[in-house]
């Protein structure tokens, strides 16, 4: 372990990082990869299992068409070539979370190969090559007892739940990404962010890193300029976008310090620690594990025919990037304003609000203004505060003159606290602008009757005196009347 | 020359999670050597440009629809378990290098 | 002793259908016979008398109600202990599964039940179907009723012995390298390996997934065909199951029983004509072939040059797949657990469990397979074996351009004495010499009795093209008309 520390600027001035990412995405199919058990999250342990996903003797897998199609769609969205023929393979190793002590995966014949994904860093496009996209089955979950905070370290026994075993898992592996220099951590984060957008746009996974439906391993190596790539380490347990960036940065610093001392980088698996932000060695194996891959005899080959692939390709949604470009142009936003929208996670919310009839300016004002403020204050997800249709309804009430801007903010408060739709909140709290001339007329008449002296003055031509009567009406209507209308009504009665 | 050494057999036993005894190792080493020498005869066949056969049935794309099928009952799941605990399968401590 | 036990299944089914005898009577007769002789034969690992009688009573009730019954309804059947039976012990002849009661039925068992067959119990076998003598059963060997000091073949020795001991009229086996046919040959019964993918593997505890094939065992060719028709057919739970109609095996058996084979070309495999086989076996097979010719068949000598490499290829492919298939037996989810004393790690407990739970032949094959799949050896062993498999398939394809079926001995030798080959594992492997090519190719093959050698049964093997299972039944049934199955000595 190096005791020296280097600054990040020094490290990336002396060494060139090469990064690579392996991302696992749990598909949101209704059933598991090879059996009909449901995939829902959060069931009682071992209640979503059957002979197949429990690996009972004699059971056999049958592949889920929806999972194959989702994988092909991911491959197509990442500009990959879809294999015309490929097989599943068994990856053999003993671990109790694997019911068969082998994992059905793909080895040298992945379903999708050789694609790319462009990511934007500070206005510049970086193209990340995609090596492969393949399909495999997830493992069960192990609960470690007797050690500290559920870690395997120090545990005296473990309990296994196979509900997750067999859920379809897509692995997306990038090609090595050289040449990003000091921006390597940013590129890694931007790639995972964009990949998440792509997968989400396909509707094949909820890609929630915090729930583990999207997981990331980050490979990092350093080399001196002009020299061959260095030995890479694989950092696992990187479970948020922020962690992706921190893990690469931390690994660059660690490796640079070690290399500065003349040390050697060991090819190893490391674990990222969220609390400290550093990586620590996991299993260290002198030799790479031999998984003894061989073609899965229980499953026949996949041979997606071109017509099938063409159908899937034709049904692909607009890419997140194309959509962003289109919306930015349609809304007339600067790059900076667009970035604010994206940072707030408000793109889809604004888009839907606009589709409900609101102007882009107004939609953006509500989502990035009042609602983002509440979201930040309460650490809530923006989309959980209000719906686009509620925001559109609120704006329509303003446009129709039923709410003033100020009243609208109060109404929105009510909407956010779950009191109902804007119209309901407005009615329940009695916040509507009083524009009913009948009701107003009565209030005006009362005010004139209550102030005979002032009324006389106005009748005599002292129009300015009308302010007293207007004020009385406004007071009587608790500010919900439009002052201009009230004034017109008063003058009409006294001078008309 | 032997096709396989006693040490290699010991390694295979470890990989296969078989706690074989020393006496067994001696027996197996000899037997595996005979078997491996015999099966190595496949190498006599000139097959460089022959494609391998992994499946004898000429099927592809055997897929099922994404439809939920009833799971096993919790009793059935754990009925055969050597050590069930709280609806889960208990196992002794897992060595970290296995993780 | 009830005469019912000597009747073929077809006849029993007809008697039951006609109401001349009840399924319960037939079942009871066989259960009585098991009680009388199985201590000496040890064909069964588990007898489910209660379940059998209940199933028989159910068939009788349905018959009384006038329900339409299948062609084998009410007939008892013995099931090799490699197929899962819901709630009924399934051990695969292994200590590691002792006491395991599966929560589900295999597809084959589901079909047997649906067709009204009565499952008598589970038959003995070499552990996980690895062996050719049933001596590798963890629960002791099965004894050949022809000579109780000899092996009944394997791995399905229990199923074959149950037939020839008249404990069951029908049995189910599984054939990975000859485990139905070889016991059939050495017990003088009919054992058929259907086309791979023609019978479902769902619930068949896997030994070598790309080779394992469940199939029928019987004392007559027609009985085997009837049972074949019950269990065969597409199963969506098995990805390798062939989605095509079952070949017309029963019609073919009836056609063959007319004794006319004119127009049928039978290929005699040159490579299996001499080397490695006992002279008495070769002589009986030669006579069998001559009998077929007398029935009108046209003999053609064909060469299948790669058949001699089938044995080594098989003993790489099967162990490789088995090393992976048997990894799941680790004492975590079901079955045996050994050594969990609170101090040992999971890895140690797993290793002790597998050490105690598996017998030596299973361990040998797991280690051979682990070796053959290892990175440094894969190409030379497993990969090369897969290529040889392609060449063997090509040999078959070329041969079937000239002939309708191929014939060869089923086994190189008659039933050998118990204990005579266990010390040299490779000598045991040689028992599969002639049966393995069909497994590697995937096509169907049947062993049918063809006389005796040294007073012990010899089997003639008839191999057919993929999904042409009917052809082998026709030829087998024709042979049966002139070479009837030998009658075993009484027990």
Q: Mind sketching the topology for me?
A:
The complex is a heterotrimer of chains A (about 500), B (about 100) and C (about 500).
Chain A: H1 8-14, E1 16-26, E2 63-64, H2 65-77, E3 81-82, E4 89-92, E5 102-105, E6 112-121, E7 124-137, E8 141-145, E9 157-161, E10 168-174, H3 184-202, E11 214-223, E12 233-238, H4 241-260, E13 269-273, E14 278-281, E15 294-295, H5 306-314, H6 320-331, H7 335-343, H8 347-355, H9 360-378, H10 382-385, H11 388-399, H12 405-416, H13 422-429, H14 437-450, H15 452-459, H16 466-476, H17 483-495
Helix pairs in contact in A: 1-4, 3-4, 8-9, 8-11, 9-11, 11-12, 12-13, 14-16, 14-17, 16-17
Chain B: H1 6-15, H2 22-39, E1 63-64, H3 74-79, E2 84-85, E3 88-92
Antiparallel strand pairs in B: 2-3
Helix pairs in contact in B: 1-2
Chain C: H1 9-17, H2 23-41, E1 44-47, H3 49-64, E2 76-80, H4 107-114, E3 118-123, H5 157-164, E4 170-175, H6 181-187, E5 190-193, E6 213-218, H7 221-231, H8 249-256, E7 265-269, H9 279-294, E8 298-302, H10 310-325, H11 346-357, H12 360-373, H13 379-402, E9 405-409, H14 425-429, H15 436-441, E10 445-453, E11 456-463, H16 469-482
